[in-house]
Specification:
This protein is an alpha/beta fold and 224 residues long. It has seven helices and twelve strands. Pathway: Amino-acid biosynthesis; L-histidine biosynthesis; L-histidine from 5-phospho-alpha-D-ribose 1-diphosphate: step 1/9.
């Protein structure tokens, strides 16, 4: 049985169902809204597994699902050496979002990562602790800042409403995904001119542990 992991709710689920439907696999959610159950028509020995988008990278890496749809950002942040654990089958063309570094708009002298590095050093001297950056993308943010020589900071975990952490004084800056930038502007934040970490979108991945002619045939059938 080939197991396909799909986000369990919202527009991401609906658009994923549409994408597979256009390629001959009809996916439907079954049961009530509290049941994470689904069905696939149009192919034998294929089952649908409904999961949160954040769970799908882990399930792919473990080989508990064979194919999975999730964001580029989630795969690269949650899986160390992700290229050895999953392979990209196809970008799906929706779910676009940019992972960016954003700072208070009132920091008029801070526009680049070099400026942020200088500001972080000054912040530590003035306050006795490191500048806090709120994010849920720890691996991606840490690697990005290290590659640009930014050192005097600490990451603080944020699993929701990251844009509000600066206003609430639990962080001085953030690293989060944005599609339009409107929420950032509404919270008086601006993106550093060179603060783009990753451009993400919904992508179909294959588990490295899942090999065999049946999966090869299914992938070929949907056009890849």
């Amino acid at each position: 049985m080939i197991r396909i992991g799909v986000p369990s709710k919202g527009r991401l689920m609906e658009k994923t169902f549409d994408w597979f439907g256009q390629r001959g696999l009809k996916m439907t959610r079954t049961g009530n809204e509290r049941e994470y159950a689904g069905a696939v028509e149009g192919a034998d020995n294929v089952s649908l597994v409904l999961l949160s988008a954040g769970e799908i990278p882990r399930e792919l890496a473990a080989g508990r699902i064979d194919l999975g749809v999730t964001g580029t950002d989630l795969v690269r942040d949650k899986l160390a050496n992700w290229e050895t654990k999953v392979s990209e089958v196809a970008p799906l063309g929706f779910g676009h979002a940019d992972l960016v570094i954003a700072i208070p708009a009132c920091w008029i002298d801070v526009e680049t990562l070099d400026d942020l590095d200088a500001a972080a050093s000054a912040f530590r001297r003035a306050h006795g602790h490191r500048l806090r950056i709120a994010t849920k993308y720890h691996r991606l943010v840490r690697d990005f800042l290290a590659s640009h020589g930014v050192a005097d900071y600490q990451l603080t975990d944020s699993q929701g409403a990251t844009e509000g952490t600066v206003k609430n004084q639990t962080a001085e800056a953030i690293a989060d995904i944005t599609s339009s930038g409107e929420t950032l502007r509404a919270n008086h934040l601006k993106i550093l001119s060179d603060g783009l970490i990753l451009q993400s979108q919904a992508t179909l991945y294959r588990a490295t542990l899942s090999q065999g002619p049946e999966i090869d045939a299914l992938i070929k059938r949907i056009g890849f």
